[in-house]
Amino acid sequence: MIVFSDILLSLTLLSVLLSLASNRLMTLVKIMAFQGIVVSLIPLFLEHHEGMAMGSILLLQVMILIKGFLIPGFIYVAVKKIKMQREIEPIVGYHASVFAGLIFILVSVFISDRIHISLPGEHVLLMITAITTLASGLFLLMSRRKAITQVIGYLMMENGIYLIGTALAKQTHTLYVVEFGVLLDLLVGIMIMGIVLHNINRTFDDVDTALLGQLKD
Amino acid sequence: MLEFTCLIPMFTGIIAMFLPVRFGRGILVVTALLHLQITILAWLGKVTPALPRYFSASPDGLLVLLVTSFIFLFISLYAVSYMSETEIASEPIYIGCTLFFMATMSMVALADHLIVLWIAIEATTLMSAPLIFLTRSKSALEATWKYVLICSVGIALALLGCFFIVLAMDIGNVHVPITFSSLGSVATQLDPMWLKAGFIFLVIGYGTKMGLAPMHTWLPDAHSEAPSPASALLSGALLNCAFLGVYRSHQLLYQAGLGDFSSNILIGFGLLSMLIAAVFIFNQTGYKRMLAYSSIENMGIIAFGVGIGGLATYGAMLHLIHHSLIKSSLFLSSGNILLGYGSKLISKTGNMAKVFPKTFIAFFAGFAGISGFPPFGIFVSELLIIIGAFQKGRSISISIFIFALILIFAGASRLVMKMSFGKWDDEILVDENMARVLPSYALLLTSIILCVWMPDSLYQTILSAIATIGGGLNG
Per-residue pLDDT tens for A113-165? Predict the structure, then answer.
């Protein structure tokens, strides 16, 4: 069981690095869908969640549906609609991004080593993955210019937060706190809706937040 | 049923979405009146929460609720006249979203449960984003995008903070509902390390929403791009609600005996916000942006006052009330100026004293008030904060505080002078009228009245709100 959860965690780490390296939006969307499913599956295979209640199983399915299918599908529609298949011009290059991702892993190993004394359970890899995902998401959010990539970065950050919540969850009441993270997807939904429906497409030639530079001091 | 304060605006908001515009405006005012009545009943202790597991009528929440409800009434009166003068695209959406926004803010003020508070603050972001995007211009889109993205990151970090606080409960083996009131009573049993970590994330998260530097970057854009009544609501009400999140977290840490840690963080953020506002206000080109930076400054002052503790906390609470009154009045006046001159740029305005005498009085008096001149309340609150800081012996902080205040006054007064007395000989687009000036006057007048006479229940509520973080009139 534990081995299986470690496999899932490694897959998550891999997807994080892949997303930092990918330059095509479609690939990025697929990676996010994969990551969403893997991340929502992880709680199922953790030791302290074995005796899961019916409600939790149901919530798990909802998470998979939202994180793995609904939101990525929504982004997929957005990418299709604004016809933006071409490469993204990042603020930080792809090689540098992957390198940054590796540094995040190192830093999170260091951090989780420092804090794991006071943590429940033995899942050191869980904490490492969680912090790496969170940091890489924030990095992606800041280092890319396209609005859609920023949303994807936010999504990744949210996955990281979900994982941290899972890592910290020990008792029953915590479980339902973590699940409220789903509400963040509402914000993601609004952002994508902004891209799809509103004038981002019409107002700008392409969805590039570098053009969002009117308001400055 | 104190929850009516959020249910009624929610309900009327849905109705207003589907009704013709004429009814919508009426609904806005009627809802504001109803809301104020329920709030006053709650103050008299006649209405209590029906779901005490999630909501409570805490003194700090009631204070924010009253301020929000009060300025909402005048803003909606103004909005009725403003909307008849200008073409607001999709007015039902504006009215509906304003009402939803009001509902979510009431929910923030009443929330006692950690997660309910978080949900409510997230909902304020969702409900206010359409208000900023209302003009559908390119710059409005940019402002909305920044607002949603930056505040969403903040909200996500605040959720992490909530996780850490729950973890602090788990480690300390505490089994109570995750509400601020019950956590406060067992605060000393919580794990201090995770509590501190949680506080940092909560302050960064809710501080983003509150406009504390360096997470303030969305605020000047959003406040200047939104239509003026919405700006007034964002600045006068939303910032207070976000502050409530920070305040509750600070309260929890104080009760856990970690007050020094959280105080120093608040003081640091407060002073940084004031300094950044002072730097950016200096060469501001738009008057609404100037007001927005002034909001950042004032939020900094409030955070500073709460961080200092003692008498300064009382000052900070007074500051919260008076800042809301005066700043929303200023934003309402700026709406008249925008209608009249047709531009948000200071260089396109001038000679307001001649052209718009009534608006000029409101704007200039508001500026004097926000800069801390008597007879307005901010004079008293800033004085109390300074005295409180001296009592605590924070001499370095207080010198930075006063330096920033002077810098901001110098920077802003230059701009306001240019607007009021500078040269201008073009034709005006929309003349001012009484319906759009009286709400500003009323808000300013309230600030003056509260300065000379404060109802005893207000006084007692402020005292009991600050008693939990060791504040009081005697230091």
Answer: 887 655 655 677 888 899 999 999 999 988 887 788 888 899 999 999 988 88
Q: Which among A118, A147, A204 has the least Cβ separation from residue B193?
A: A118
Average pLDDT, chain B: 91
Q: Is A155 left (phi over 0), alpha (psi -120 to 50) or beta?
A: alpha
What sign has the CA pseudo-torsion B356, B357, B360, B366? negative
Chain centroid to CA B25: 24
Of residues B312, B216, B314, B217, the one with CA closest to residue B267: B312
ipTM above 0.90, yes or no: no
Query: SS3 sequence, chain B?
Result: CCCHHHHHHHHHHHHHHHCCHHHHHHHHHHHHHHHHHHHHHHHCCCCCCCCCCCECCCHHHHHHHHHHHHHHHHHHHHHHHHHHHCCCCCHHHHHHHHHHHHHHHHHHHHECEHHHHHHHHHHHHHHHHHHHHHHCCHHHHHHHHHHHHHHHHHHHHHHHHHHHHHHHHHHCCCCCCCEHHHHHHCHHHCCHHHHHHHHHHHHHHHHHHHCCCCCCCHHHHHHHHCCHHHHHHHHHHHHHHHHHHHHHHHHHHHHCCCHHHHHHHHHHHHHHHHHHHHHHHCCCCEHHHHHHHHHHHHHHHHHHHHHHCEHHHHHHHHHHHHHHHHHHHHHHHHHHHHHHHCCCEHHHCCCHHHHCHHHHHHHHHHHHHHCCCCCCHHHHHHHHHHHHHHHCCCHHHHHHHHHHHHHHHHHHHHHHHHHHHCCCCCCCCCCCCHHHHHHHHHHHHHHHHHHHCCCHHHHHHHHHHHHCCCECCCC
Residue B90: which pLDDT band, with cuts at 50, 70 and 90? confident
pLDDT at B265 (0 to 100): 95
B245 strand-pairing partners: none
Q: What pLDDT score does A5 carry?
A: 80
Residues whose CB falls within 8 Å of the CB of residue B291, separated by 6 or more in sequence, listed in order: B223, B231, B235, B327, B330, B331, B334
Residue type, B207: G
Chain A, chain B: beta-carbon pairs less than 8 Å apart: 108
Residue to mutate among B152, B155, B191, B216, with most A CBs inside 10 A, is: B152
Structure tokens at A142: 């800041």
Residue A49 confidence (pLDDT): 54
Q: Kindly state the average pLDDT of the residues A209-215.
A: 61
Phi, then psi, of A148 in degrees rounded to 5: -65, -40
Q: What is the pLDDT of residues B107-116, one digit of tens each?
A: 999 999 999 9
Structure tokens at B445: 């007048």
Q: In the predicted model, is pLDDT for residue A205 greater than 50?
A: no
Give the pLDDT of residue A203. 38
Using CA of residue A51, residue A57, residue A63, residue A69, what is the dihedral sign? positive
Tell me which residues of chain A have a C-beta less than 8 Å from any C-beta of chain B. 118, 120, 138, 141, 147, 150, 154, 157-158, 161, 164-165, 168, 170-171, 173-174, 177-178, 180-181, 183-184, 186-188, 190-191, 194, 198-200, 203-204, 209, 212-215, 217
Rounded Cα distance between A197 and B203, Å, is 33
Q: How is residue A115 written in tokens? A: 């804090």
DSSP lists the bridge partners of residue B24 as: none
**d(C-alpha B25, C-alpha B208), whole Å:** 32
Q: Which residue, among B126, B121, B95, B330, has the nearest Cα to B239 in the 3D structure?
A: B121
